[in-house]
Amino acid sequence: MIQTSIQSSVMRSPFRLTPHSKNAGFSLVEILVSLAVLAILLLINVQVIDQVQSTWAASNARVSQFREARTAFDILVRNLSQATLNTFVDYDSNYVITAAQNAGVTMQTPSSYQRKSNLQFVCGPSTSLLSGGGGEALLPGHAVFFQAPLGVSENPSYVGLDRLLCSRGYFVQFTSDEPFKPEFILSSGNKYRYRLMEFSPPTEKNLVYSSMGANGVATSSWFSAAAAQANAINVGNETALNIGVTRPIADNILALIISPRQDTQANQTVSATVIAPRYAYDSTVVTLNTANSPQGTQNLLPPLVKIVLVAVDERSAERLAEQNGSSPPFGTTLTSSFNNANQLESTEIPNLIKYLASQNVNYRLFSATVQIRSSKGGL
Amino acid sequence: MNIQNVMRRPTRLSAAFTLVEMITVVGIIALLVALATPALVDVIRATRLNSSGDSLSNRLSLAQQSAVARSNEVEMRFYKYTDPTNPDASGEPLFYAYQVVDVPNGADPRAISEVYYLDSGIVLSALTKFSPMMQTTTDQRPDSTGNYLFKPATGIPPASVRYAALRFYPDGSCRLLTTANGSGSSANASATAYTVKPLPESYFTLVEARTMNDSNTPNNFYCLQLDFYTGKVRTYRP
Asked: Quick check: B23 pLDDT over 90?
């Protein structure tokens, strides 16, 4: 009886699907094979899905990240092009002072007419302009400070006065997001990033006038504390009346490069970077003066300003932050690689690109040459 | 004959699932579904919160751009009212909707967008801790023709609606309504009712309705921070 049952099962082909016997079923081998095939398919599937997912996340991060950088770059270009000095012509300052001091005593002859301004346009390496914001590593690249009729006021009754004069400034700072993020998420860990900071006091707090010396010339005290202020905005520290004036407008901006240029179309005898060969430009200082032009570039706006913004995406920044924590990942490299405006395009930017590629960072450069509308031409 | 044969074949076979087998299989499936549902519900809630937040932040940027493009003041209004049909609210007024409104000088405000309702189960937190920007609301008033801009669902009188307002200016900056206007307030008083808030206090948060009265930081939130000088939105998520 047992014998016959075994015989019958052996004789039956495994592929005959005549299910009139209770023993009909898949053999172990069949199931193993099918499982193996299934496992391979699943493995391939998982790999494909994983790849798609990471590509999607990466491109998404890149798009949204560079969107923020692009908006910030647009704001910077738009505002910088409105920079003004509001110059006027007056007797030299000696005359003004001595006349005031010796009022009614003697006649004084003014020695010359001069181009004058109470305002200032200044740019250069951030560390040379800003104090209290940390060293070179925390303030990479360049900073620019200027006055423009942007009309941002704090007092609500000034709404509608849309051409009020405001101070503006831009620089890159490596900061924590602690000072400006909402209080209830403070505990969630701080994000240390390179950020593009905007120095934008409301028009009531334009310190350019109080910074002026007796000769009516602005001094650096209206902007020099901008980077320190970024750290001073703090929860509870800032009130409606004592509003922080420096705020981040984009994260993950590694460097801002500002190069004032001469308009070479108008004057072909000079090189474009002659007005700021080392990137530094200060409208209150007499430079490049000649017998014909005794003031040089004093109280002149640069006709053109070349701006380069180096942005990285959030994924790269996250990775760098994981490795470096609260210390700036690029150290002083970003500052030291920009010091000769003549070689900006030929050497300095290609070197930076090489450096960023070697650090395996996903970056993008934004570059524009801004024409300053109220500039009366250069030299 | 043939047909009969075919028809009869299954009944002849003993191969079929028994009741016990079926019950076991159904039981296993039920168990798996029961295990997976809570996780799935969480995922759906999180997606809803994210999509509500994303669209709100996009519409804020859009409102700012329309103020610049129209060279006119544009306001985003967040409507707060009591919806007796909402089981989560227990009769409290909540922010259910928002709308972009053009506010020309000396003329009636005009809606320039439809009314956007938040997804169900998502609310704009009214707690000061999570939404310091949403603390001042003003009554919705009829315009010169007696119409209300925003009419909620039937059964809710439009006059009972209050709103918080965020006003964008043609230079790209924005201000928040911080003084609720009286009915006869002058143009000057209405202009000065809008003020700039300091950056660490200029945010509001979308949370899930079930955690809206909990003052502990919820597991899931979508916080929007607004820079009043640039009109730019920054978002925070856990």
From this structure: yes
CATH value at residue B176? 3.55.40.10
Q: Domain tally for chain B? A: 1
This model of the complex carries an ipTM of: 0.73
Q: Which residues contact B202 (CB under 8 A, 6 or more apart)?
A: B132, B133, B176, B225, B226, B227, B228
Please state the rounded mean pLDDT for residues A97-122. Answer: 72
CB atoms within 10 A of CB B192: 18
pLDDT at A5 over 80: no
- Residues of A within 8 A of B195 (CB-CB) are 156, 240
| Residue A52 maps to a domain | yes
- Residue-wise pLDDT tens digits, B133-165: 888 888 888 888 888 888 888 788 888 888 999
Which domain, by its residues, includes B163?
A: 17-236
Most confident of A121-135, A206-220, B23-37, B71-85: B23-37
Query: For position A97, what pLDDT does the model report?
Result: 55
Beta-carbon-side half-sphere exposure of residue B118 (alpha carbons within 13 Å):
27
Three-state SS string over chain B comes to CHHHHHHHHHHHCCCCCCHHHHHHHHHHHHHHHHHHHHHHHHHHHHHHHHHHHHHHHHHHHHHHHHHHHHCCCEEEEEEEEECCCCCCCCCCEEEEEEEEEECCCCCCCEECCCCEECCCCEEECCCCCCCHHHCCCEECCCCCCCCCCCCCCCCCCHHHCEEEEEEECCCCCEEEECCCCCCCCCHHHHHHCEECCCHHHCEEEEEEHHHCCCCCCCCCEEEEEEECCCCEEEEECC
Say which of A24, A156, A179 has its CB closest to residue B195: A156
Domain-located, residue A199? yes
Give the mean model confidence (pLDDT) for residues B32-47. Answer: 90
Residues of B with a Cβ under 8 Å from any A Cβ are 12-15, 129-130, 169-173, 175, 188, 191-200, 203, 205, 217, 223, 225, 227, 229-230, 232, 236, 238
Which of B13, B15, B173 is facing A152, going by the closest CB pair?
Answer: B173
Task: Decide if A27 is inside a domain.
Answer: no
Q: Distance from A238 to chain B by nearest Cα, in Å?
A: 7
**Measured distance CA(A141)–CA(A150) in Å, rounded:** 25
Confidence (pTM): 0.79
Residue contact B129–A184, C-beta within 8 A:
yes
Q: Is residue B45 part of a domain?
A: yes
Q: What is the pLDDT of residue A348?
A: 92
Q: How many separate domains does chain A show?
A: 1
Whether A341 is in a domain gets the answer yes
The minimum CA-CA distance between A232 and chain B, rounded to whole Å, is 12
